[in-house]
Amino acid sequence: MECIFTNTEWFLNWGRKSSIWYLLFASACCGIELMQTGGPRTDVDRFGAVPRATPRQSDLLIVAGTITYKMAERVRLLYEQMAEPRYVIAMGSCANCGGLFQGSYSVVKGVDKIIPVDLYIPGCAPRPEALADALIKLQERMMKEKYLRTVGASA
Ligand code: SF4
User: Fold this and answer.
1) Structural domain harbouring 35
2) Does residue 154 lie in a domain region?
3) How many CB atoms neighbour CB 63 within 10 A?
4) Ligand 1 pocket residue status of 125, Cβ below 6 Å
């Protein structure tokens, strides 16, 4: 039984990590580097990562830029519309902790105050290579997950 789980899980995880569909939430200058990541130089398509226009088809939410309190409800709504298992990357200082604007009354001091974050990318702005590196780290994490057992236990 253990072997069946192990092989099936490996195959399932390999499929998931090879087809990460991501939703962009770019609210400020980090978004420019985020868009560049999908371009030909960094070309994250080669890892199977492609952008989607709807949270309902997305595995990964990439939050890039300043998040204000007015935006917070939308960010949470997008996250809640994503099917599990779902992941979040906070890209850049603003998404991580409010960055340059964390002293402002209107700025959320990190997107993790609204939704759970799996990976943080430091920098202002992080380069596309940093986002590609985060995607690879997420793939490594996916390969170690026991998601099938979690689902089986809760069914
Ligand atoms: S971290 Fe820097 S580059 Fe990114 S959104 Fe904030 S101010 Fe702009």
Assistant:
1) 22-146
2) no
3) 31
4) yes
| Residue pLDDT, tens place only, 23-54 | 999 999 999 998 888 888 888 899 899 999 99
**Closest alpha carbon to 66 in 108, 104, 35:** 108
Neighbours of 58 (CB within 10 A): 24
Q: Is the CB of 66 under 6 A from ligand 1?
A: yes
d(CA 28, CA 24): 12
Number of CB atoms found within 10 A of residue 70's CB: 9
Q: How far is the CA of 94 from the centre of ligand 1 (A)?
A: 6
Give the CATH number of the domain where residue 140 resides.
3.40.50.12280
**Residue nearest to ligand 1 atom 3, measured at CA:** 125
Nearest CA to ligand 1 atom 6: 94
Query: Is the minimum distance from the CB of 78 to ligand 1 under 6 angstroms?
Result: no
